[in-house]
Amino acid sequence: MEAPKKPHAAKNLANDLLISVLTRLPPKSLCRFLCVSKSWHHLISDAYFQAQLPPSMAGLFYHFKDQDPSRCWRINKEYISTPSYHSGFIDTTLSFLPYTGNIQILDSCNGLLLCRLWGSPSSNVFICNPVAQSWTLIPNLKLPNFCLLCLAFDPQVSVHFTLVGLQLNKQSTCVELVKFSSQTHSWAKFPVSTECDIKFHRKRRGVYFNGILHLLAAWKYIVAIDLEGMVCRRIEMPVTSSLIRNKFLGNSGGSLHYAVKGKREMRVWMLKDCERGEWVLKHSVVLEVMFDITAFHPDMDIVFLRVQNILMSYHMNTCELKELHTLRQKTVHWPFVFSPFFGEDVLENKNGV
């Protein structure tokens, strides 16, 4: 009676051993092994396998402006690979996209990028995956209609992404939240109450994780929007001061982090209890250099800083400040942390397909 179960048990054991081996491989080898066979491709793309992979940040995208020979302003993007990660197998130039012109990245979330063509009609907005070299054009989108546009994607929950746009209603305390779902391929509008008159920072990106979109609101609040239940709540910032020169909101280690800069001092808080709005001061340091806070490392206690035209990493555990990259310009716009996604995505177009 037990004989039929043996092949199934042996198959599970073989898969467990294979998963144990594959999860120890560098990302470059893992990406190549997607093409070994259909069964390997299915295994590596499976949500369970993806959950076994150690989180890894591959690098950062950033933008800068310069002038072309005709003295017209143009936007350029560059990619910086972190020292511990070989990104050579990822098309970080986005050359696989069937668009000509300068591509501006608007947001980055768990391996997917929200992009548009700089200086093109606003309808040319798309989502792409540099690992799979795939993309999807977003229909019926006019950027000027939104004060904020954010990408929400969590492959551990769903293979589908959500695009979230905010439209402010000056006549009420409600925010018009518009969602595009890759599952339905359609837009839906929801009025979300913020409980009081809150002004959002234009061009400040949202921080999405655990199903919650966190937005930096003017002066002393963070607004957290549950994208599933459409519930909005305010979280008071741990500190408000007119002496703050630079502030940054981000996700690190699965917790919301908030960093502020005075003249040369940097303080970093972590949100310990979201329901109570309880923050803990995680780190405080006075640096000998002038700096700007640019990003959090999503997996390690590292803050990325810009010191003149040098990108540096500050390790909160060791207090080490390390030089990573010489930037093309002293003025850097929109740095985006990039953590590649190796699973099978639902983007409509594939390079060569």
Automatic annotation (TrEMBL):
InterPro entries, alphabetized: At3g26010-like (IPR055290), Beta-prop_At3g26010-like (IPR056592), F-box-assoc_interact_dom (IPR017451), F-box-like_dom_sf (IPR036047), F-box_dom (IPR001810)
Domain of life: Eukaryota
CDD domains, per database record: F-box_AtFBW1-like
Residues annotated as domain F-box: 13-52
Pfam families: b-prop_At3g26010-like, F-box
UniProt cross-references to PANTHER family, sorted A to Z: EXPRESSED PROTEIN, F-BOX PROTEIN INTERACTION DOMAIN PROTEIN-RELATED
NCBIfam families attached to this UniProt entry: F_box_assoc_1
Protein name according to UniProt: F-box domain-containing protein
Organism of provenance: Dioscorea zingiberensis
